Amino acid sequence: MADWVQNLMDSMGYLGILLLMILENVFPPLPSELIMPSAGFAAARGDMNLPLVILMGTLGSVLGTLPLYYLGRVFGEERLVAWADKYGKWLTLRGQDIRKADDWFDRHGTKAVLFGRMVPGIRSLLSLPAGMSEMPLPKFLIYSAIGSGLWASALAGAGYMLGDNYEQVEQYVGPASKIILGVLLLAVVVWFVRRKRAQASGH
């Protein structure tokens, strides 16, 4: 994949970075922790300009959040609540649980978007609850841009400094992202278990 990413950027330049970062948000298996360090390495070789690399990476990342954001807006809280009330018992999920989660996102959504854009594994998925909770698009774009810009800067800067060894960034960030995802999945499992126990005890 590294060779394909590098070849695309070599042939398309800054437009290649933009396209790859849009795709990375829609198809998470294409990792930003490979794309941006590779672009940073290209800047270190003198083939690209580092600030422009960061700008295009940030812009692509922000544009890539929009499909899932609008999917969340279209699906909406009410539809999900209705679905949970009808079918959610199989997952011990109720409509009021959805409303509580939505209320939480209303209170903490800006921080979730800002810092979540720097967390591999969930950075692209955050757009869905942001859309479902009807976070205003300008606010969503601003916080996405800040978080994405910091993430793109860190990755491109690492690639710039590491030079030929830029692929080491993915080697370190990749396992970390799996750990983060594992912790989040464990938290979800614990939540489901506690919900079932609470229901069994009649609380």
From TrEMBL:
Pfam families: VTT_dom. InterPro entries: DedA_domain, VTT_dom. It is found in: Cell membrane. It is a multi-pass membrane protein. The keyword Protein transport does not apply. The chain crosses the membrane at residues 12-30, 50-71, 140-160, 172-193. Residues 30-160 form the VTT domain. Its main location: membrane. The keyword Transport does not apply. Keywords: Cell membrane, Membrane, Transmembrane, Transmembrane helix. This is DedA family protein. It comes from Deinococcus navajonensis.
